[in-house]
Amino acid sequence: MNQKELNELRRRFRLDRTGFNRVYGCFVNGNKEIVSDLDESFGYMPEAEAERYLGLLKKVLSGRLGKNLIDIVFSTQQVMEGEEHKLLTALRDSELKDRETRTAFYQKVIDQLDMEGCSYLLLMSHERYDVPHRGGDDELQADASDRTFSYFVCGVYPVKEGKAELGYFPQENEFHNLAAGQIVCPPELGFLFPAFDDRAANIYNALYYSRRPDELHQEFIDGVFHTEPPMSAGEQKAAFETALCQGLEDQCSMEVLQAIHERIHDQLQEHKERKDPEPPTLTPADVGMILADQGVERERIAAFQERCGEEFGENAVLNPENLIAPGKFQVKTEQITVSVDPEFSYLVETCMIDGKKYIMIPVGKGVEVNGLAVNVSAVQTEELS
Description:
It contains eleven helices and 18 strands.
């Protein structure tokens, strides 16, 4: 799925334009016991309550593609014979109306998911979306639908104890303690099945959501999809850094890392300005060109690319958003941490003075320490030089 397709589905989660009719689910306590079963029509709910349910379901499609939202890919054999895929398909085909199928899915999630003793609400809803035709001007034509996309979304929402608060009681004209209740939090994880690729159903893919990109809940993916998940954003960043350090060895300098960070940062900015719906991509060969521009030896570049092959697989295509922190450039030693606006990372230099290693940052018009302006005297400057 690309960003444009994702945005198209996100806009479905409003009462005035949605095809979601019912919400299903169950409330599971910390002992993995179903406390309550949910099966309600949006049409019989107060409007504010229905909007709240739709808002919770919509959050399963929040975050960034390739980071919070990742593709789960089924093999042809799984689609033809896999029990996990059969269960998901049965849920979709029944529009979640078959209680026995729902119960089987609930139990699979409960058996596999580790929420560390936290209670949670599992929510599901199905929609048949009449996909409008997209004209030559890229505008949607609502009255010219030529296909129907049948899908469901599922989310797992931690439920936590709220705090007692003071509240105003108008009839008594007094303030009293309000009893604490249990609060449904934003989703920890969830998914959409099937994926909406090329504005049509792709039964070979699901779109998986994780609130924390570095913690995908592997046990849920194993149990519900039985597939090998892609590397998490954190794993991709760590693997990329490993390939750089081990491949470049002593040529992994401040200047080289600055150049890589700057090029990737510029690429992400250009991608954002183009409003390209497809996620940005970067290959080890692209990084190799940056390294060559910085004078890194061919042998070291080859070693880096070999390490990338070991970490990511052959012909890997990476998401640059997962390789750097676009909004920051940080330099750390054992004693200090220096954070620099990426736009001005070129100001940071390393050098040797009297056999000692230094991080050098030119001083501009003013210097502040904890918000207080300080003076850098000429004498201090001369001592350093």
